[in-house]
TetR family transcriptional regulator (Streptomyces triculaminicus), 424 residues
Amino acid sequence: MQAIEGPPGLRERKKRRTRDALIRSALELFSLKGYEGTTVDEIAAAADVSQRTFFRYFTNKEEVALSVQDMAESRFLAAVLERPAAESPLTALRTAVLASWDGIEEAIEAVVPLELHVRTYRMIQETPQLLAAHLRRQAELEDRLAAEIARREGLPAQDPRPRILVAAFSGVMRETSKLWADVAGGDMAELRGTTAAYLDQIGPALAENWRS
Amino acid sequence: MQAIEGPPGLRERKKRRTRDALIRSALELFSLKGYEGTTVDEIAAAADVSQRTFFRYFTNKEEVALSVQDMAESRFLAAVLERPAAESPLTALRTAVLASWDGIEEAIEAVVPLELHVRTYRMIQETPQLLAAHLRRQAELEDRLAAEIARREGLPAQDPRPRILVAAFSGVMRETSKLWADVAGGDMAELRGTTAAYLDQIGPALAENWRS
DNA sequence: GAGATTATGTCAGTCGCTGCCACTTGACCA
DNA sequence: TGGTCAAGTGGCAGCGACTGACATAATCTC
């Protein structure tokens, strides 16, 4: 049972610390010896827990590598859900990404150094297994986004337009994220700029008003 | 050394037979006991080879599950490369998919029963690991498509428009493929219809003429 | 502080996958 | 035609990811 949110007790705080320690150890080892070159045993040892415990916090090795990225995506989804229904779908998505980036650096730094996260992001793109897992999560996110947009616009589930829009939007996001990690070296201001510029390229092209 | 294509000798024919047998055995077992419920040992045994040999034909268990799907994608890519440069990007993609579907049922039947392929496709969507691998391959395909379109249109590599277009196009393809497997039960005529209809939804919306 | 919960460690075992080496089989040529 | 070379195959040993079962230790609750 869960009381409606008390101050977290010792147990919860300890769990959080262990989890963060596992993430930090994992990302550091990954960036040092590569993803495949790092064993779960090593990660667990570095965080001072048993291998079995690692698998109680993360269902598999991929998950720990994607955990920070995951947080960023949760923020984005949450931001989308908060957008007023009056905004057009594309505007809502655009505003939501930008909003979800406010204070994200601090949120990341609370777990791992920002630079480590950037290196991890690059590693994800280069490691087939991780890229695959990452794309699957993205696809799940796209599903939820499309469903939310269909809901907002009052469209039946079969209407393909939300999915097409979300696909185009996600395509932009994937590109700009890659540029952010590879070219910009993790600079958020530059990411905002590139994203806005790239989104402007679909804006006019996809801006059919579905309601008129 | 490879002579420029002689008639395949006994050795080649035997390899082909083994490979096809492995695919058939694998897909049948998958559809019977599920992907994770099937071991590579079982697949190898069913095809009458050793486990070691299985891994000489497929780098991993995923690959055999995606092998037929892979063939379809190769056909599509080849069809795109054959499109005349005069066609607009979206038209080229559209014509290429439809063209790549001519005779595809026969090509599939040469390896496995069509119905088994449809069931496999459904399984891919439902099995996280397979979906992930599938999406990664799709992403690779998208990269190549975008590069080809950029080349055709004489655009610099940074221009995001080819990628956005390809992302939207692929979004449509993913949707219609799912419908094909789930709703249409593998009927190609229906797939063509749905695809055309869905593509019409982005056609006008994305039909900026990049050259004018 | 006793007793119920929950987190952790240990251990044994399965499965995917790889390197290594010995053996067989089809290809090619004198 | 027979012999040599290259390529395909099997068996085995071993690593690493992951899981179930059980015992132990740490918090929580009253």
Remarks:
- The radius of gyration of chain B is 19 Å.
